[in-house]
Amino acid sequence: MLVDNCFGDYYTRKGLSDNDREMITFCYITAQGGCEPQLLAHAQANIKLGNGKAFLLKVIQQNVPFIGYPRSLHAVRIVNEADKAVNNQ
Fold first, then answer.
1. How far is Cα 33 from Cα 74, in angstroms, rounded to an integer?
2. Average pLDDT, the chain
């Protein structure tokens, strides 16, 4: 069920580009907090799709009023880690 739910229907729906879908996924995982391994994976996916480090940092900045500073700071750390990992491959 998990595989069908996570990787089936959501990624085959029309309407959003892969870039938009990954950016939105990054936002809601950031907002949840405590999901750093998943956030790292989606930060890396964003960067690989072209939603680079600068873009993701702007996304975090726009979400600070909604998610707060602690989660935002964790997200900034994860984006830096993801960017380093992707660009050192």
1. 8
2. 91
Are 48 and 86 spatial neighbours (Cβ–Cβ below 8 Å)?
yes
Rounded to 5°, angle at Cα 4 from 86 and 18: 40
What are the tokens at 34? 């405590």
CB atoms within 10 A of CB 56: 26
Contacts for 35 with CB less than 8 Å, ≥ 6 apart? 29
Confidence of residue 14 (pLDDT cuts 50, 70, 90): confident
In 3D space, the residue among 28, 29, 84, 25 whose CA is nearest the CA of residue 52 turns out to be 84
Interatomic CA distance for residues 50 and 21, integer angstroms: 12
- Residue 50, SS3 per DSSP: coil
pLDDT of residue 13: 73
pTM above 0.90, yes or no: no
Dihedral, 26, 30, 35, 40 alpha carbons, nearest 10: 50
